[in-house]
Amino acid sequence: MIIAIGNDLAEVERIRAAMERPQTGNRFRNRVFTAGEQEYCERRRLSKYQSYAARFAAKEATMKALGRGWGRYVGWLDIEVVRPRGSRPQIVLHGKAKEYAASLGISRFHLALTHTATLAEAQVVAEGEGELGETE
Q1: CA 82, CA 125: separation in Å to the nearest integer?
Q2: How many angstroms separate the CA atoms of 64 and 124, rounded?
Q3: Is the pTM of this model over 0.90?
Q4: Is the pLDDT score of 135 beyond 70?
């Protein structure tokens, strides 16, 4: 059963600017994106900021599907977008986000990503046996 959905739209230029800021860009990159996500996006070369923006949107959309923003129950690095070779992108949860999703009865996420040169969008559907709002 569908428990919740989330969607988000991210501006590619805003993500690029945050990552290229001399004093804080590396900190932003490492605080928001896992090593695997960074490796994937950097391989994209010319479209790397589009890929980063799509992953940022996916993390935000996942937080919306969980009914929580960044904080006590969900951290940026607890949500990872992975793309197995020959497969579509997927959401993988770690740490406290994984535990929180389980407490809601969420067992699977479905992810759709799209982007242009200026915008990236993500839609997430949380599936399982629970109901959003059953726990704190």
Answers
A1: 16
A2: 9
A3: yes
A4: no
For the segment 60-77, what is each residue's pLDDT rounded down to a tens digit?
999 999 998 877 789 999
Residue 136 lies in a domain: no
Contact 15, 21 (CB under 8 A): no
The domain that holds 82 is classified in CATH as: 3.90.470.20
Per DSSP, 126 falls in state: E
Domain annotation covers residue 30: yes
Total number of domains in the chain? 1
DSSP, collapsed to helix, strand or coil, labels residue 7 as strand
Q: For residue 74, how many C-alpha atoms fall within 13 Å in the half-sphere facing its CB? A: 21
- Residue 29 belongs to domain spanning: 2-128
Question: Is the Cα torsion angle 129, 132, 134, 135 positive or negative in sign?
Answer: positive
Q: What is the pLDDT of residue 68?
A: 84
